[in-house]
Amino acid sequence: MSRSAGAGRRLRPLKIMHRQWGFFPVVLACVVLSACAMQPMRVQQGAIPEAFPPSAKETAFGQRVFKALQKDYPLDADSPRAEQIQVIFEQLAESVDMDPGDWQVVLFDDPSVADVRAVDGNFIFVWSGVFDVIESEDELAGLLACEMAHELASHTDPVQFSAGSELLFGITDVATSLGVLLLTQGAVNISGTGMTRWAYVEAADLDPVDRVYATEQVEDMASIALMILSASVCSPEALLAFWKRTGSDAQSRQRVARLSRELPPQERLAIFETILPKLPVAQDPSPAASTVRTVDADEGKDS
Known about the structure:
The protein has 12 helices and 3 strands. By secondary structure, it is mainly alpha-helical. The chain folds into 2 domains: 75 residues, no CATH class; 186 residues, no CATH class. The chain has a 3-stranded mixed sheet, with helices on both faces. A hairpin with a 3-residue loop joins strand 2 and strand 3. Helix 2 runs antiparallel to helix 6, helix 4 crosses helix 5 and helix 5 packs across helix 8. The longest helix is centred in the middle third of the chain and has 21 residues. The two termini are 40 Å apart.
């Protein structure tokens, strides 16, 4: 249902609430203004953050997200494409002295979804629709490197709020429960805590899988990802070529809407183009470092 479809039906209850619970909108406004998620510190430019094995708590968090996603998307664990992703990821990790065994890279079989997402616990989720928008293994490596970078920069850490924000969330939970109880004349009783906190996380796109990163976080990610690619056999320029191509027309932009999140491909490209010339010059690990490996449209598909 669209937001406008139910607007008329909600108008009168809101007026009643305003008349009898005049303080409630004020509390909501305070929450919106002050319940800002605490952001991790920016990373040092020109350096790849040190990678650590995930803690038991972080691993458990990633596993919970993984199990939740499995309810909606079939797992692809044994196909050539799954193996291809794993090989590329291991090359990237080993090129910067990270242990691939500390990470879990998962492929979901859903051609309608073109996306790659990292969550806390060193989990990276790939949806098979991404193979329809890339043109080379190096472009796939670039997308994987971006999510590795978000994880290394702690951008994927579960959202945290200040003590003041948590207090306001609690106050709003109580006010909401009382308001609903009054409006329904006792017919509906909402109890429990965390309602407002959950609503804020959803509205602000801060949940683990659909998180939208701030521009500063994208800049930090771009620096780290390009350094990872430069240290590997993959071409950093392929990642720039990907965003340039997918931002060239409306249809292409629509196909990568989930990948680009709320930052258009052209703006992502501008960030990468600004950062790439500033990076330290890396030694080519092999003669193949400047070779862009193409991906055949049918490569990796089961016969």
